[in-house]
Fold this protein.
Amino acid sequence: MNKRLNILLLDEDSFSAQIIIDKLSKYYDFTIVGNKKETLAVINEISPAAILINIGDSTETGFEICRVIRENTSAVELPIIFLCDQINNDELLKIYEVGGDDYLAHSATELELRSRISNTLMRKLDLVRFKKDLSKAFSVAMIAMSSASEVGEILNFLHESFKCPDYLSLCEAALNTLNSFGLDARVQIRGQQQTVSYSHLGLCSDFEESVFETISQQGRLVSFSNHSSCNYKHVTLIAKNMPCNDQDRYGRMLDNLVLLGKVLNERVIALDNEIAIVHQKEKYVQLVDIVNSSLVDMNQQLVDDICFSLNDIYHAYEIQKANILKLADISTNQEQSLQKIFNNNEVEMKLNNLLQKVNFHS
């Protein structure tokens, strides 16, 4: 069986109030009050489904009570219906101004009274539901906006990370991003060059280094008390003040830790590769210098060997002078050709071209 609704009837005339009750007592329970003070007290006590105000001859009293009711936050959504004999345009606007929802004539039939009250109740119920749905939608929108803003911070970190030349600057950029989320964080990077553990105060203590060592051997996400951490191969992030009392924000912060950790881990790998390429290029340059120097030495040695051999031939076989001169010319031409190659830097140019191709493919 449905619970009967209680309607608060404000009427200074008990006789007219009884007439209304007789028409509607089959459908509603009624509580009768006669003044403003009593009205507010009863509203807070019984939480009526609606209020009927019989303005009778004292219209200003009814309007004033309605205004006070609307200013009472506990009754701000209550349906308020005015009952009157006749109403002019000024009074109609006044009802609307003070927060009334409808008005009925005293002469209204039972069916009309019940129908108008029922419709007013339904409209108010729909309005309350709409406001709740709107509030939920607003909350969802705010969460979505917050999430978008947080993702934007991580994208900004990715952009800034390309300017970081070393692990320390990467740690500082990651800490700045976590700080923008309101998190007190620690960051550890385990790269090919070294291991760096950093907080907003600088390098972490030996104790925190031990904590990092322990946590880094756990799973992807580790939570204890209001602490949460995220682990990747080259990175561990620890947040020390997770919002455990706000589940929506807590979930978003966990997602942000994972996303930031993944991005930072990839940037550490990329930075290690960039450093390795620089070292490799330096070795190639040294190799070119060594090869070029060796070829110059080889050229001089080759010329010296040719001259020495010609001298041996001359003494061993006493060749005619004309033939010796001819051999000398041939030797000189070969020497000049070799000198030309090195004087024009052809070998060095070819080696440098090779180096450029290696750099390009790197």
